[in-house]
Design goal:
21 strands, 9-stranded mixed sheet, alpha/beta, single chain, binds 5'-O-[hydroxy(phenylacetyl)phosphoryl]adenosine, globular, 4-stranded antiparallel sheet, 24% strand, 11 helices
């Protein structure tokens, strides 16, 4: 249940003392070892000794993805290459990736933090765990790998892809837990069904998911498809990878490893810190212990809420809500903010359509248009025109009520929308392209 009960249930006052001591350390570490931070802080008129309380963090300027990009590949490292023992990179598909480095101590901390989250989710040394995240430069697979080994679980490093073999091994090995993105878990279930397997052929009981958003409705679908208990886990390469936050079995938000990460929420537009509990904002994180790739007030672009109430599980570390979306994933359609998760919740509640969908945004004249393309479960509906039209209208009306804007709904034949082995890419934004067709 607990990997490190004492730390995980530490009284808040004690936790804040630990945070302050570590904040002082990391600010000095950055000032002395990373040129970028040294000049940034100098420009802002801050020196490390200005940090006397936790709220003094406000004197430190924010760090953005652009700052990391400008210092590609190793400019933000806080330790010499001699001390760096591992390199990973962000999973971004455009341009150069963000490269991150770990010292031996960073790796030790990382595996302990992942051990915490997998035990909080209910994993144990009795589990056989299949890791279906890509091992590549992505942090997901190796992050979970070492944390799971640390608690004594049996790790099967299948990596992502090769789905039929993945499913076969899952059955033959009696795999009890799976690690993947939620969308890949759903795809694996579809492949298992196509291969003629049933739920009872598998021993899966736990799914450690993360790396992309997943609504509660989508989680239910995955749990039903596999007959398992699923937890959501949050992390980011720039911060470490998985291990930053994860759900315990109460599933009332993801506990942030606050002894290693100082979390703030800010208003995306004004950049003011949100002190009001319960208000949503952009998560800003300062790493408190990292040597290889420390970040000060990093703007994650992920929108969430923070909850500091103690959790019934006994953990005192604050919880972050499910990610509502990324500030750069949020679609602005005719002036209205639309989060893909809102659309997903509507679609999943409609039994005739499956959980695979695409959101296509176009600019027609001066107007943005949104097309929601979703797969039918049963292709015979395509021949029943009146029913098809009624279904289309039903989805349209429900989306309009939730989003407050018009969108076009198109129903696709089963299994025609692209499947993903890693993070799903459901948004096709064609607004800045001459081409108006998704083909
Ligand atoms: O996705 C790290 C990770 C690996 C987390 C395995 C959990 C499990 P990146 O590839 O750098 O790192 O992507 C980070 O993915 O800013 C979020 O937008 C998104 N993300 C990560 N976890 C979640 C989640 C890993 N649980 C970016 N829910 C982040 C929603 C998530 N979005």
């Amino acid at each position: 249940m607990f990997f490190d009960r004492e730390t995980e249930t530490m009284p808040r006052s004690q936790l804040e003392l630990t945070q302050l001591e570590r904040l002082k350390w990391v600010v000095r570490h950055c000032y002395e070892n990373v040129e970028f931070y040294h000049y940034r802080m100098e420009k802002a008129g801050v020196t490390p000794d200005k940090i006397k309380t936790l709220s003094d963090i406000q004197y430190i300027p924010y760090t953005t993805k652009a700052d990391l990009r400008d210092n590609y590949p190793f400019g933000m490292f806080g330790a010499s290459m001699k001390k760096i023992v591992r390199i990973h990179a962000s999973s971004g598909t455009t341009g150069k990736p963000t490269v991150v480095g770990y010292t031996k101590r960073d790796l030790e901390n990382w595996s302990s933090l992942v051990a915490r989250l997998v035990m909080a989710a209910g994993a144990s040394e009795d589990d056989i765990v299949q890791i279906a995240f890509g091992y590549g430069l992505f942090t997901g697979a190796l992050g979970l790998h070492y944390g799971l080994e640390k608690i004594g679980a049996t790790v099967v490093p299948t990596s992502s892809g090769n789905t039929q073999k993945q499913v076969m091994l899952m059955k033959d090995f009696g795999t009890t837990a799976v690690v993947s993105t939620p969308s890949y878990a759903l795809y694996m279930a579809e492949v298992a069904q196509e291969m003629g397997y049933q739920k009872k052929d598998f021993k899966l009981r736990l799914g450690l998911f993360g790396s992309e958003g997943c609504t509660e409705e989508m989680r239910d679908k995955i749990e039903q498809a596999w007959g398992l208990f699923a937890t959501d886990n949050y992390g980011m390469s720039e911060l470490m990878g998985p291990g930053v936050a994860g759900e315990c079995q109460e599933r009332r938000g993801m506990h942030i490893a606050e002894d290693h990460f100082l979390a703030e929420l800010i208003d995306t537009k004004t950049e003011d810190v949100i002190t009001h509990e319960g208000r949503a904002g952009e998560l800003v994180i300062t790493t408190l212990t990292k040597e290889g790739f420390p970040v000060l007030r990093y703007r994650t672009k992920d929108i969430t809420k923070l909850d500091f109430e103690p959790c019934p599980c006994g953990r005192t570390h604050a919880r972050m809500h499910k990610i509502m979306g990324r500030s750069d994933d949020m679609l602005k359609i005719r002036g209205v903010n639309v989060f893909p998760s809102q659309i997903e919740s509507v679609l999943i509640a409609i039994p005739q359509v499956g959980p695979h969908y695409q959101l296509i945004v176009r600019r027609e004249g001066y107007l943005d248009t949104l097309e929601v393309l979703v797969e039918l479960i049963d292709s015979s509906l395509l021949e029943k025109y009146a029913q098809l039209e009624a279904l289309q209208r039903e989805i349209h009306d429900k989306l309009k009520t939730v989003l407050g804007i018009e969108c076009k709904v198109n129903l696709a034949e089963p299994k025609t929308i692209q499947r993903f082995q890693g993070k799903a890419q459901r948004i096709v934004d064609l607004r800045n392209q001459k081409e108006v067709s998704p083909q």
